[in-house]
Each structure stands twice: as C-alpha cells, then as structure tokens.
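Objective 1.3, modelling of assemblies. Example input:
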Amino acid sequence: AQKVTQAQTEISVVEKEDVTLDCVYETRDTTYYLFWYKQPPSGELVFLIRRNSFDEQNEISGRYSWNFQKSTSSFNFTITASQVVDSAVYFCALRTFGNEKLTFGTGTRLTIIP
Amino acid sequence: DVKVTQSSRYLVKRTGEKVFLECVQDMDHENMFWYRQDPGLGLRLIYFSYDVKMKEKGDIPEGYSVSREKKERFSLILESASTNQTSMYLCASSFSRVRTGIYGYTFGSGTRLTVV
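Predicted structure (tokens):
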C-alpha cells in the first residue's frame, strides 16, 4: 500500500519570503511517480510537476523548485520570493507503475500575507 | 481547451434522496475517477473506471455507486444521501501510456454537496 504524508497542515509567511512544503511518501514499488498539485480557492486542482522514481534530478521552474530524495523518501517543494497568488492548498501525490490511482497527502494550506 | 466538466458547482440535497453527480471529459481519456475531499483528510478515491462499463472500488466506496455508459461520461451515485456524505467531490480523467510512463491527470472544478 502507498501512503503520502504532508505533516504541515497550514503555513503562513509574509510576502517575498521563501517557503518549503514537505512531502514524505511510502511505497514498496521500485517504479513510481510523484506529483504536486495546487488548489486555488476556485477548487480545481492545477498540475505543477511530475517526477519519476528513477530521476532524482532536482527541478526548478521560475520561483518553484523541487527536491526529490529517494534516500529519505521525500519530495519537497520550495517557493522562492512568495507572492499572494501562491496562496492555495498544495497536495503531494503518488502513483505506482501500472496502477492508475493517485494517492494524495492531506494537503498543506499556504497563506501568503501581503 | 481540454477540460473535465462537473455538472454542478453547488448542490443541496435532503437525507435519503438519490443523488447523481455528473462528470464529462472531452479528451478521449481512458480512465476516470471520483475523489472526495474533506478537511484534514485530503483527497480520497471513491471509484474509478478504466474503460466503458468497467469500474473498480477505491478506498471509500461505501454508500456510493458509479456508472460509465459512454467513454466521456462518469457518474457518481449516492443511493440514499446521508449527512456524512456532505463534502467536495472532484472528478478526474487521465490517459495512460504504459510504455512511455506518461500519466496525465485533469481535474474538474468540483461539486460541493451539502446533505441536510
């Protein structure tokens, strides 16, 4: 069975600060995929990134960066120079190879204070 | 613009009513899913379907059923709504490309159901 843990329920930071959202996963499969989604107040989940288990290279996309470490089963997400528009609930999710289902964490509500 | 459309954004139903939540996708995706979202619990999978007329139970199927008569439409049915089914319901669809490992999901905007 798979499990995704997002220990941070809510985070508040002042605008322009950096913030890291933690994600720890559990799976016995050797091939799997990790995802981050953003859910703004409108409700729709917006895809941010997908990472394959065999690719531990960190990724940067503008102000967003992701740190994937198989040794600690973590896939953390950092927002640099946060903005009010980053305020949302962020979900980490896991999918194993050959399995169509996504297993989600409980989400982290991020509030950026102007 | 490809999308997943959920028929209602907000819905209020009475206890004991039969409730239908509709989801339509226009991407010719094989797979469709129904999730339930509750504070502190994240998204939990209710049912999913990987083909027309095919369905599989997710993690919390009790009290729900589904129907997929056409590839683009996936319906969630609450046979007899109860107050503990008050929640946000999210539909999603995905294609699967096993060989290339490409898995893309698209989510609808959700239906907030209140059972009174």
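The interface with chain B takes residues 6, 9, 33, 35, 37, 42-45, 47, 50, 52, 91, 95, 97-98, 100-107 of chain A (CB under 8 Å).
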